[in-house]
Automatic annotation (TrEMBL):
One GO molecular-function entry: hydrolase activity
Keywords recorded for this protein, A-Z: Hydrolase
Family of the protein in this entry: Belongs to the amidase family.
Signal peptide range in chain numbering: none
Protein name: Indoleacetamide hydrolase
Amidase domain location: 26-449
A Pfam short name: Amidase
Cited function: Hydrolyzes indole-3-acetamide (IAM) into indole-3-acetic acid (IAA).
Keyword DNA repair found: no
Annotated organism of origin: Flavimaribacter sediminis
Domain of life of the source: Bacteria
Length: 467
């Protein structure tokens, strides 16, 4: 058997059911590795004694048939848990312990999973670097000088570094898929509404969703089944049946050279495996997305966060949240929203009533016209960049905005509420992971996961950080 820390969720559960492994042995190995690599900054809160006790209780159960029996998970720090703090990476919530687990993760615990740790993140999930001035920067296990992406950077770093077998993050515009891509793991964003968002510190109720981060698509699917209640899986799906869209003008422009090379190599591998590739672009997609993205997020954040605070009995104002925010980018954003930078309601209404329906129709028409199972594109146009480059990063010899560049490809599907999954496909010439994303039609989640699992086999990515 592998070293226990290298096991994915399926492997760990199977080993425990067979008697080859105990939850306590797994937990002890993960704790030792987590302590040894604490410099990754992957966690905001742990309670190792409590985790050991939980593992002992799992081992004492006569029946070990629950789907996630005895497997610890890292849960992002903006998802409520009753046993560890839900700080959302911000100063004013540093001591906040929720009264109950968020609904989605409660379903995982009901299925036998253990709360392993809380994952570090970009403050309040408002960024893509996880360079957090309150909790400290999360680091990329492939190169600790580099960002793991965000906002679920700590979760992705922990899974990639074998500190936890899998975890749950949140994704508004990129925040599960991007860190998964930059850390060489799998990140799945479901159709909005597939999982409950109850008990999650929000940005935008119409865009936010929790999502699994795992070592394999099969493990992501295992978490998906428990959070969604949907165990359906297409039967007898063959590579020769698949029609995958390749929107080159829409998603393949101005890529880092290594990302471009990896994308073209993967496309060629799919073609050689018998997949039908359909080269067709999605007109007006990026312009329409721009009319949705920030108007929705910046308006809803100012309604949704106060509602969460009230629901959770937290006597805090947005002014206090701003005052105790530590990261300059987040503090500046909230300050602007409290002042003259507030998003006008008419811009929000246009985004919700006009631009978003148009965006969703663009996708629906594209999938239907070309009879596509999914569209395929690089999750991010570039690989991980150094920690501290929060404002701009270098891409093809130019300095470009960090946030807008990293979410360029992930954002449109988010606003259309469709499912997307990032799978690792290659390492760059400097040893950094590269991910490719598949986006599918709305509510095609189970089918998309099945397609991704087949394509994951073709990618055959097996690299691990040299820790």
């Amino acid at each position: 058997m592998k070293n226990p820390t290298e096991l994915g969720v399926h492997e760990a559960v199977d080993a425990m059911r067979s008697g080859a492994l105990s939850s306590r042995t797994l937990v002890d190995a993960l704790i030792e590795r987590s302590e040894r690599h604490s410099d990754l900054g992957a966690f905001t809160a742990v309670d190792w004694d409590r985790l050991r006790d939980d593992a002992d209780q799992a081992d004492a159960k006569a029946q070990k048939e629950t789907p996630l029996h005895g497997v610890p998970l890292v849960i992002k720090a903006n998802i409520n848990t009753a046993k560890l703090t839900t700080c959302a990476g911000t100063g004013s919530l540093k001591d906040h312990v929720a009264k109950a687990d968020a609904s989605a993760v409660a379903q995982l615990f009901d299925a036998g999973a253990l709360l392993g740790a809380k994952g570090n993140m970009h403050e309040l999930a408002f960024g893509v670097t996880s360079n957090n001035a309150v909790t400290g920067a999360a680091r990329n296990p492939y190169d600790q000088r580099m960002s793991p992406g965000g906002s679920s950077g700590g979760v992705a770093a922990a899974v990639a570094a074998d500190l936890m077998p899998a975890g749950v993050g949140t994704d508004t515009g990129a925040s599960v898929r991007l860190p998964a891509a930059l850390c060489g793991v799998v990140g799945f964003r479901p159709t909005v509404g597939r999982y409950s968002n109850d008990g999650v510190v929000p940005i935008s109720h119409t865009r936010d969703t929790v999502g699994p981060i795992a070592k394999s698509v099969a493990d992501a699917r295992l978490l998906d089944v428990e959070m969604s209640g949907d165990s359906s899986k297409p039967a007898n799906l063959r590579l020769s049946d698949l029609r995958i869209g390749v929107p080159r003008i829409t998603f393949y422009q101005d890529l880092e050279a290594d990302v471009d090379a990896a994308a073209q190599a993967f496309i060629k591998a799919l073609e050689d495996a018998g997949v039908t590739l359909v080269e067709a672009d999605i007109p007006e997609l990026m312009e329409t997305d721009e009319a949705v993205s920030f108007p929705v997020v910046l308006y809803e954040f100012m309604q949704d966060l106060p509602a969460y605070l009230k629901e959770n009995g937290l006597d805090l104002t947005m002014e206090q949240i701003c005052a105790e925010a530590g990261s300059p980018d987040v503090k500046g954003l909230i300050a602007s929203l409290l002042g003259e930078g507030a998003m006008p309601e008419d811009a929000y209404r246009n985004a919700i009533d006009v631009a978003r329906p148009k965006l969703r129709k663009l996708y629906a028409d594209h999938f239907a016209e070309h009879q596509l199972d999914a569209v395929l594109f690089p999750t991010a146009p570039l690989t991980a960049r150094p920690i501290g480059e929060d404002e701009t990063v270098e891409l093809n010899g130019a300095r470009v905005p960090t946030f807008a560049t990293f979410i360029r490809n992930t954002d449109p599907g988010s606003n259309a509420a469709i499912p997307g999954i990032s799978i690792p496909v290659a390492l760059s010439s400097t040893g950094l992971p590269i991910g490719m994303e598949l986006d599918g039609p709305e509510n095609s989640d189970s089918h998309l996961l099945a397609v991704a699992e087949m394509l994951e086999d073709i990618a055959a990515f097996s690299s691990k950080p040299n820790l």
